Amino acid sequence: MTTENKPFFQIMGSFKKTFWIASIMELFERWAWYGIFAVLALYLTGSTDDGALGFTHTEKGQIMGIVTAILYLLPLFTGVISDKIGYKLSLVIAYIMLISGYYFMGEVSSYQNVFLVFLYVALGAAIFKPVVSAIITKSTDKTNSTLGFGIFYMMVNIGGFIGPAFSSTLRTQYGWKIVFIQASVVIFINLLIVLIFFKEPERVKKEETIGEAMSSSLKNIWEALKDSNLTVLLIIMVGFWTMFNQLFYTLPTFIEDWINTAALHDSIAQISPWLASFMSGGGTSVNPEMLINIDAGAIVLLQLIVSYYVLKMRHVSAMISGFIIAAIGIGITFYTGNGLYTIIGIVIFAIGEMMTNPTFSSFIALISPKGKEALYMGTYFVPVFVGNFLTTFVSGNLYQAWSDKLSLLQMEMSKRAIDMPEISKGFTKNNYFTVASEKLGMTKNEMTQMIWDSYQPNKIWYVIVGIGVVTVLALFIYDRLIVRPREKQLS
């Protein structure tokens, strides 16, 4: 019996218990991850007298970019290990690592220790990722897999929305440490779920060692990458992921530095005092992570509508359109210092993301030779890995040089020969801004506008949008030279 012949509620009732357990665990895991990740750039670079770490943007870029890149590479190995030791034990190990890792992220403060603890968290997340995906795959069949993965993707975005929303309120009212404790508590709930409710599903046990299984996995990836058509597509998709990552790596600090979120809060309060309070975490300024969170909220609300529209388009056409829309959206967010345009830009970007990301997965499956679908799908992580690594330099080195408010202010004070103390434990970033505004005889908002006018920190949008434009052109050429000729041969 096909899905087309089954009513919706009958399909919903066909899902196994393990499917719902895995989906709920995914929601909580994403809650914890994005509850940290959405505010991590702010925590790493914020002023120490606010409880943050005061790192440079270069250091932030290295911590977030390199560690997250490694996270997307590790499932190639952790998935093999999980198949050997079992899913339940793998989940228990992952949750213990995440509970302890998230907690200690809020306790360490040196660059080296933060990097190492975050890497430890990434390893725990990398153990979780392939296991929960495998459980969903084994818990669905041809009659319900489309809806099943749709529900699973929805859980990802619900968790991705709830996490930053909770973190925003918690950090505003109680400080930074509670944000990390929250993540540990949420993962502890997952640990209870797996210990009490989860039963090990049947697995096909192969007579090979872990080393042999890892070697076989690497050979499979290499075998798929020998297909030049696939490899070119993956290289093109690096551009999408590099551009997409700016939403979490770069935009939060750009908003913190350059957007007058207090004015935005007041504007929203005129329409809805409750919404203004929600987006500010109970404070008087809209928190950057709540603006970023509009992306996840839009996906939860609009994904089904966008997916229905995309069904009527060719895969590559949908991806090209999605790239263009996403590039326009991300460009708007960085082009102005106006909070309203930031919101509009994020919504536009979300629409482009909804058109591109799911379609990319589907397109890989479409171009895979018969019998090699799983082999080709295993390459999905490659552009994600490279895109995160390249983001290290855009969000780190480039932002530090072109757009960091503190660096540009220090440059301006030096040009004017105004003597200022060095940043230290006793003289924080906030202290520097306060003293500089006093010596310049300006309010902090006037000082920010002066730096904006003098140094144009928004010029970083040229690079970010430029990556999107190059990606669009490359995909257009790929479509003309590879995809369309192939479609003609098959028609």
Distance between the termini: 28 Å
State the total count of DSSP E strands.
0
Elements, N to C (H/E): HHHHHHHHHHHHHHHHHHHHHHH
Radius of gyration: 23 Å
Mean pLDDT across all residues, rounded? 90
What is the annotated CATH architecture of the largest domain?
A: Up-down Bundle
- By secondary-structure content and strand pairing, the structural class works out as mainly alpha
**Name of the CATH class of the largest domain:** Mainly Alpha
According to CATH, the fold-level topology of the largest domain is Growth Hormone, Chain: A
Spatial shape: globular
Task: Please identify which CATH superfamily of the largest domain we are dealing with.
Answer: MFS general substrate transporter like domains
**Beta strand %:** under 5%
How would you portray this structure in words?
With 491 residues, the protein is mostly helical. The protein has three domains: 12-199, Growth Hormone, Chain: A (Up-down Bundle), CATH 1.20.1250.20; 226-403 and 456-491, Growth Hormone, Chain: A; 406-455, no CATH class. 79% of the residues lie in helices and 0% in strands. It is built from 23 helices and no strands. Helix 7 (145-174) runs antiparallel to helix 8. The longest helix is centred in the last third of the chain and has 31 residues, at 460-490. The protein is globular, with a radius of gyration of 23 Å.
